[in-house]
Amino acid sequence: MSDALQYSRTIGLALSGGGARCYAQIGVIKAIEEEGWRVAAIAANSSAAVLAAIYATYADARELERVALGIDFATFLDPDGSTGLIGHGGVYKLLEEHAAATFEELRIPLAVPTVDIERAESLVFSEGPLAQPVAASNSFPGLFVPVEYRGRHLMDGGIVNNFPVDVIRTLTTRPVLAVDVRPSPSAPLDLDSQQPRSLLERLGSLFGAGLPTTVEILMQAYNITQDRVVEITCALHPPDLRLRPELPHDLDIQSFDRIEEAVEIGYRSAKEAIAAGRFSALDGSVPA
Predict the structure, then answer these.
(1) Quick one: which of 92, 108, 86 has its CA closest to 149?
(2) How many of the other CB atoms lie within 10 Å of CB of 146?
(3) What percent of the chain is modeled with pLDDT above 70?
(4) 213 or 181: whose pLDDT is higher?
(5) Angle at the Cα of 219 (from 258 to 49), degrees rounded to 5?
(6) What are phi and psi of 178, to 5 degrees?
(7) Which residues pair with 265 in a beta bridge?
(8) Beta strands in 57-175 (DSSP E)
């Protein structure tokens, strides 16, 4: 491959948050590597920040897939609830075993957005120790408590912007592929189902399946609000190619038992987009 062609196949990568849906991004990265694309820099939020930290360490999609499919998510649960429903310990252990200690040691430059939950301030980290900012970016409200770092209490960057298409432009001048796996703001809710009547039934429904629980409705409201923010950000900082793998609605942010399915959907989505010629947008600077 000529130097000119190799350079034309170098891209920036922006990865949205989305919990378990983020694993579709592994399939996308795997597909683009097979087609000869190289990632020059990454901006990633929430669960994607964890995956991006591992990928930026190895710069190898197959190794990222191997690590991701080997994660025992049961070990992430916090038995005493001191760090939320899901503990930071599992994330720290994963990063300790499979990610560089600092941003500077990564093979691919990485930036992760976070939010100071006390000061309502967005902070982006791209240098210094890696684990705390990545864990903070992954700290979804209600599942995790904030990460204390440098005198601040940091949480999920998705609180402000769940799709860092603006951040990636600060890292590279290469064309940007943005992979959007956020839950749909118009996902169906079975609002006509019989609602639990007693207090105990209501509490039980929070942990059950099939009913549009209060948690699900709150998540849908969050998704609607976030969608408006994301669309404004994308209009101001349009990626050269925005890829939206067609993940089913019921593969939600907590579907960690379906990550192989998510990886396959992401892989197939990227391959289909490449075959359809959509990736030609990354050879120049025309948004698609």
Answers:
(1) 92
(2) 21
(3) 81
(4) 181
(5) 55
(6) -115, 120
(7) none
(8) 110-116, 121-125, 147-149, 152-156
Q: Give this prediction's pTM.
A: 0.85
Where do we find the tokens 């939320």? 84
For 112, list phi and psi in degrees, rounded to 5. -125, 125
What's the CA gap between 66 and 146, in Å, rounded?
29
Distance of alpha carbon 131 from alpha carbon 136, whole angstroms: 8
Nearest to 110 by CA among 100, 120, 118: 100
Look at residues 124, 201, 198, 200 and name the one whose alpha carbon lies nearest to residue 160.
Answer: 124
| Burial class of 19 by CB neighbour count within 10 A (0 to 12, 13 to 18, 19+) | buried
R_g of the chain, CA atoms, integer Å? 19
In Å, how far are 29, 68, 132, 179 from 281, measured between CA atoms? Answer: 17, 29, 35, 14
Exposure string over 50-83, b if 16+ CB within 10 A, otherwise e: bbbbbbbbbeebeebbebbeebeeeebebeeeeb
Are 64 and 259 within 8 A, CB to CB? no
Q: Are 176 and 158 in contact (CB under 8 A)?
A: no
Q: Are 114 and 122 in contact (CB under 8 A)?
A: yes
Residue type, position 218, single letter: L
Residue 34: CA count within 13 A, CB half-sphere: 13
pLDDT of residue 99: 98
DSSP code for 197: -
Distances from the Cα of 183 to the Cα of 68, 95, 167, 254, 260, angstroms: 20, 25, 21, 11, 18
The confidence score (pLDDT) of residue 198 equals 46
